[in-house]
Amino acid sequence: MAVAIFRLKVEPAISLWGESQPQVELRFYLARDVLVDNKGIPWSGGGRRKYGASVLGWQDRETGTGEKNFISFCMVCKDLGSNRICHHELETARINGLLGNIDANTGDPQIGWDTDQFMTDIAEATLVMQSVVRNGGIAPGGFNFDAKLRRESTDVEDLFIAHVGGMDTMARGLRNVAKLIEDGSLAELVLNRYQSFDSELGALVEAGKADFDLLEKKAMEWGELQVPSAKQELAEMIFQSVL
């Protein structure tokens, strides 16, 4: 990290595939992919694009109706080069009161196509069930495997094994979520990571009351910024410890 920061100070922004990379400047780095600190807002607030958020924005603009329910497709998030994960789509739906049915299938990210496999990834299932628990359940919706056997699985018992495996995977994910909630370490880490949004500016941004004049003023006041640690490795270790 020290080497990276040194390079940021002495080297100009470089180009990759003909695209500029403003994230090499610390002010843009703070809001690069996930906006973790409100001090990055005056320079690069916004810019994150995901399926669920895109659909929500279109629906509000075009229909204006209050009837909202998403069917979240875990497999589609993983395949088709979408660069999205199922958990993000579920959280987007949950936060906006849209979490309905979940197609609890999965795919092979290396293939990049619709493979409709039964979910067997415990980590993925844990994240899926975390959204369900936070939502207080998904009734009257539910889980739909929407999956099929692989071509080489030709025995009748394979269909039984696949369904049992899929259900067990979701059940283990639910148990893992209970462990995370009881421990509380990961939730505390997330709370600390976004604590800047409890500040004066953060509250104004969340309320939609921060204008460009205010952001310009804050940018001039803050000057050189410090990059807060996201504690990524610690978060991953806490998560992995329950699997």
Characterization of the model:
- With 243 residues, this protein is mostly helical.
- It has 2 domains: 2-48 and 187-240, no CATH class; 69-183, no CATH class.
- 50% of the residues lie in helices and 8% in strands.
- It contains 12 helices and 7 strands.
- The protein has helices spanning 2-10, 26-29, 41-44, 51-62, 74-78, 86-95, 122-134, 156-183, 185-193, 200-206, 212-222, 232-240, and strands at 15-16, 19-20, 70-73, 99-103, 105-106, 117-118, 143-144.
- Strands 3-4-7 form a 3-stranded parallel β-sheet. A two-stranded antiparallel sheet has the order 1-2.
- The chain is elongated, with a radius of gyration of 21 Å.
- It starts with a helix and ends with a helix.
How do the helices and strands line up, and which of them pair or pack?
Elements: H1 2-10, E1 15-16, E2 19-20, H2 26-29, H3 41-44, H4 51-62, E3 70-73, H5 74-78, H6 86-95, E4 99-103, E5 105-106, E6 117-118, H7 122-134, E7 143-144, H8 156-183, H9 185-193, H10 200-206, H11 212-222, H12 232-240
Parallel strand pairs: 3-4, 4-7
Antiparallel strand pairs: 1-2, 5-6
Helix pairs in contact: 4-6, 6-7, 7-8
Enzyme class: isomerase
Protein name: Xylose isomerase
EC number: 5.3.1.5
Please report which band the strand proportion falls in: under 5%, 5-15%, 15-25%, 25-35%, 35-45% or over 45%. 5-15%
What is the overall shape?
A: elongated
Tell me, rounded to a whole number, the average pLDDT.
Answer: 76
Residue stretches low in confidence (pLDDT < 50, at least 5 long) are: 1-21, 78-82
What count of helical segments does DSSP give? 12
Category by helix and strand content = mainly alpha
Indicate the radius of gyration in whole angstroms.
21 Å
Strand order of the largest sheet: 3-4-7
User: What profile does the largest beta sheet have?
Assistant: 3 strands, parallel
Count of separate structural domains: 2
Element-level helix/strand string: HEEHHHEHHEEEHEHHHHH
Q: Quaternary arrangement of the chains shown?
A: single chain
Span between N and C termini?
Answer: 29 Å
The share of residues in helices is: 40-55%
The total strand number stands at 7
